[in-house]
């Protein structure tokens, strides 16, 4: 996998000191791997359970990433997941398990720390932005209201969407942008999807059926064009981690596949294929969507949100 090259090389953004909570887990490991090579971040602090605190990272972690762990990473000393241990961090990325994430992340927020979380615990809180970075990065504007509510001057808490959902919401956003009446309160279209779980290392594969309200429905060629032409705000801002194409449409009849395509555009793009009419006539179109569950579906999404948020004029001074 490629973690050292980026779509855009933005200058003038000094690296920010950051930390990772839940550093030994799958998402925590992905955070650490991506941060180790990112131009906007310097990893200084990692946290895990109390039984791991005080030990070197290499002594505790069961490293499951495709690239080897560097000596510098392995020598980092694990801290307890308490705000006092992360005071020097300008940003904290959370890969905590849901059993502990809720209370710990709120403690960090109330300690005036900036937290980007992958856990589900705070996703339904109306004061916490739930952001898919190549869809609705503008929802980070909620941070101003969050800070006012909790009387904070710099702390924040932002969450990712569910990792299986990301393969759906990105192509849906492209179709909504192209066909304005799509998905209005779910009355404008009927959507059916399923995520197929197979024995793969990484990747979520979704099989999607779509029925449009407007008739005649868009053709396969029109939908293909709408997906290919979709450009997110994160791409327009030229965030380093942003994909060259948020959606990559594949023409081959046996693609996308998790083994071959999960790391398309470094894992930040959604791969779409097998776009076709529904022969049964029940649905208008069918397609298959693939996303990387721990990059655009988890750790990578948080890094992209932070880079994108810092460049939005409305919140550029607070992230």
Q: Count helical runs.
A: 10
Overall outline: globular
- What structural class is derived from the secondary structure elements? alpha/beta
As residue ranges, the low-confidence spans are 183-189, 313-318
How many strands, what sense, and barrel or not for the largest sheet?
6 strands, parallel
Report the mean per-residue pLDDT as an integer.
Answer: 88
With strands numbered from the N-terminus, the spatial order across the biggest sheet is 3-2-1-4-5-6
How many β-strand stretches?
11
Percentage of residues assigned to helices: 25-40%
Order of helices and strands: EHEHHEEHEHEHEEHHEHEEH
In terms of DSSP E residues, the strand content is 15-25%
Radius of gyration: 20 Å
Distance between the termini: 29 Å
Keywords:
5-stranded mixed beta sheet; 6-stranded parallel beta sheet; 10 helices; 20% strand
SSE blueprint:
Elements: E1 16-21, H1 26-35, E2 41-48, H2 57-60, H3 71-74, E3 78-80, E4 91-94, H4 98-110, E5 114-117, H5 143-150, E6 156-159, H6 166-178, E7 189-196, E8 204-212, H7 220-229, H8 233-236, E9 247-250, H9 258-261, E10 270-277, E11 285-291, H10 299-311
Parallel strand pairs: 1-2, 1-4, 2-3, 4-5, 5-6, 9-10
Antiparallel strand pairs: 7-8, 8-11, 10-11
Give an overview of the whole structure:
This protein is α/β, with parallel strands linked by helices and 319 residues long. The two termini are 29 Å apart. Mean pLDDT is 88; it is low at 183-189 and 313-318. The protein contains 10 helices and 11 strands. It has helices spanning 26-35, 57-60, 71-74, 98-110, 143-150, 166-178, 220-229, 233-236, 258-261, 299-311, and strands at residues 16-21, 41-48, 78-80, 91-94, 114-117, 156-159, 189-196, 204-212, 247-250, 270-277, 285-291.
């Amino acid at each position: 996998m490629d973690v050292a090259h980026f779509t855009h090389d933005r200058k003038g953004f000094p690296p920010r000191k950051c930390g990772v909570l839940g550093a030994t887990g799958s998402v925590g490991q992905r955070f650490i791997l991506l941060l180790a090579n990112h131009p906007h971040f310097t990893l200084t602090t990692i946290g895990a359970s109390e039984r791991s605190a005080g030990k070197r990272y290499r002594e505790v972690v069961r490293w499951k990433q495709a690239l080897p762990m560097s000596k510098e990473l392995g020598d980092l000393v694990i801290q307890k997941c308490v705000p006092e241990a992360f005071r020097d961090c300008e940003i904290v990325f959370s890969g905590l398990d849901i059993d502990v994430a809720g209370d710990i992340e709120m403690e960090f927020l109330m300690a005036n720390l900036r937290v980007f979380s992958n856990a589900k615990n705070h996703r339904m809180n109306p004061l916490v932005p739930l952001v898919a970075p190549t869809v609705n990065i503008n929802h980070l504007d909620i941070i101003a209201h969050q800070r006012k509510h909790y009387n904070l001057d710099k702390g924040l808490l932002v969450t990712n969407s569910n990792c299986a959902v990301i393969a759906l919401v990105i192509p849906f956003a492209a179709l909504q942008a192209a066909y304005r009446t799509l998905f209005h309160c779910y009355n404008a279209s009927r959507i059916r999807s399923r995520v197929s779980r197979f024995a793969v290392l990484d990747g979520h594969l979704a099989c999607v059926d779509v029925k449009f309200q407007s008739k005649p429905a868009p053709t396969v060629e029109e939908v293909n064009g709408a997906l290919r032409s979709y450009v997110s705000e994160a791409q327009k801002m030229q965030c380093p981690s942003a994909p060259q194409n948020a959606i990559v449409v594949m023409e081959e009849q046996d693609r996308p596949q998790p083994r071959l395509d999960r790391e398309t555009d470094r894992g930040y793009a959604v791969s779409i294929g097998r776009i076709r009419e529904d022969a049964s006539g029940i649905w208008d179109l069918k397609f298959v969507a693939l996303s990387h569950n721990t990059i655009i579906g988890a750790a990578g999404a948080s890094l992209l949100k932070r880079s994108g948020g810092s460049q939005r004029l409305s919140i550029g001074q607070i992230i």
